[in-house]
């Protein structure tokens, strides 16, 4: 069984890599197979999560509290009625508003406040290289904000500062792209090692 799994994985890997040279019906089958497996896995995982969540909450819950949730859920099915489709807009707006409120409360700290805190740091107690990196991050952040927030032209002192900020942004984006490219190459090397039987 293990040999069959290895052969199937190797064939699928080679066919998928052949798309770099020319697209064929085999590569399209492989593409559809990969998307189908991912979609099926995501569907099964979502259904399992839903069943586990419902069974956990219903087991020790007061059923009176479940009546409003059940009522809102039933209203969603009015989407299939032409005459009363507007009714489904009420629970949809409630769900979207609740979701946006929960997501906003959970993302403001990690994506905004923690980012600001990580940029405005202290230099006491750090070694020379850490302090140098902190200065670079602080300068790059300040110039990037200057580039996007001030709409002055590229003339005079502000123009030179914006040009310098543009170079810093290009360096940052280049480093991010290089890091992403290294991750892709690492996965490609992993596939080659798999095909060569290193594992």
Describe the secondary structure blueprint for this structure:
Elements: H1 2-17, H2 25-59, H3 63-76, H4 89-119, H5 128-149, H6 156-195
Helix pairs in contact: 1-2, 3-4, 5-6
Structure report:
- The chain has helices at 2-17, 25-59, 63-76, 89-119, 128-149, 156-195.
- By secondary structure, it is mainly alpha-helical.
- It folds into 3 domains: 1-61, no CATH class; 62-120; 122-199, no CATH class.
- Helix 1 (2-17) packs across helix 2 (25-59).
- The longest helix is centred in the C-terminal third of the chain and has 40 residues, at 156-195.
- The two termini are 17 Å apart.
Notable traits:
single chain, 199 residues, mainly alpha, 6 helices
- Beta-sheet strand percentage? under 5%
> Using DSSP, what is the number of strands?
0
* Computed Rg: 27 Å
- SSE order, one letter for each helix or strand: HHHHHH
Structural class: mainly alpha
Overall geometry comes to extended
Summarize the structure.
With 199 residues, the protein is mainly α.
């Amino acid at each position: 069984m293990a040999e069959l799994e290895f052969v199937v994985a190797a064939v699928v890997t080679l066919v998928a890599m052949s798309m770099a040279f020319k697209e064929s019906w085999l590569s399209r089958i492989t593409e559809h197979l990969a998307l189908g497996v991912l979609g099926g896995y995501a569907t099964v995982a979502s259904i399992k999560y839903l069943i586990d969540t419902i069974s956990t909450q219903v087991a020790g819950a007061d059923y009176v509290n479940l009546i409003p949730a059940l009522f809102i859920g039933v209203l969603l099915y009015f989407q299939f009625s032409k005459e009363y489709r507007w009714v489904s807009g009420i629970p949809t707006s409630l769900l979207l508003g609740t979701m946006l409120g929960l997501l906003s409360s959970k993302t403001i700290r990690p994506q905004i406040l923690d980012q600001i805190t990580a940029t405005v740091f202290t230099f006491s107690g750090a070694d020379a290289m850490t302090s140098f990196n902190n200065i670079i991050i602080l300068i790059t952040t300040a110039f990037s904000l200057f580039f996007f927030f001030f709409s002055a032209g590229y003339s005079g002192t502000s123009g030179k500062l914006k040009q310098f900020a543009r170079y810093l942004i290009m360096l940052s984006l280049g480093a991010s792209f290089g890091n992403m490219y290294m991750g892709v190459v690492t996965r490609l090397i992993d596939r080659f090692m798999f095909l060569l039987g290193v594992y």
